[in-house]
Structure formats: structure tokens, C-alpha cells
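Sample intake — Antitoxin
Collected from: Actinacidiphila glaucinigra
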Amino acid sequence: MERIPVRELNQNTSAVLARVQHGETLEVTVSGTPVARLVPVSGSQSVLDRMVAEGRATPPAASGPIPAPPVLGDPGIDTAAALVAMREEERW
């Protein structure tokens, strides 16, 4: 990421914004201290897609609704076995 002084931003605003529009990220400095970042707007990607692309999130492994947990106290359901089965599905 390139740093540019605020003076350059003031004097060449159109040129700086054109660079950002073409995909560059620029850091604006005042007396050598970073104060702002100019980043391109990517309206075509969702927040999740952008985070996955940046490596900050993992895409979902499965689609569809999450199964409801077993009803507590139902004698016909072995809750521990159901939990083990769900965890086994996640691993593979």
C-alpha cells in the first residue's frame, strides 16, 4: 500500500481517485502519520464473499437449514448419540 501526503491528495484529487478507482489502496498521511485509507468500493461482492477472499472467513460447508436439536426429556431419543452423529457428519 502506497502512502501519499495530504498535500498531494489536495493538489491531485482527480488523479489520486482515478488510481483508487483502478484498484489501488492508498494511505493518506499528515506529517508522515497515517490518517486515512482510500480503498476501491466493491459493491458487486457480498461482505461474506469479500471476507472469504481476504482470508478472514471460511465459506459455509453445507447449505440449507440447521437441524433442530432433540427435545430434552424425550425418552425415545438418545441425545448423546444424536450429538455424536452430528459431530461425525461435520468431520467428514
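Post-analysis note: The CA atoms of residues 17 and 86 lie 51 Å apart.
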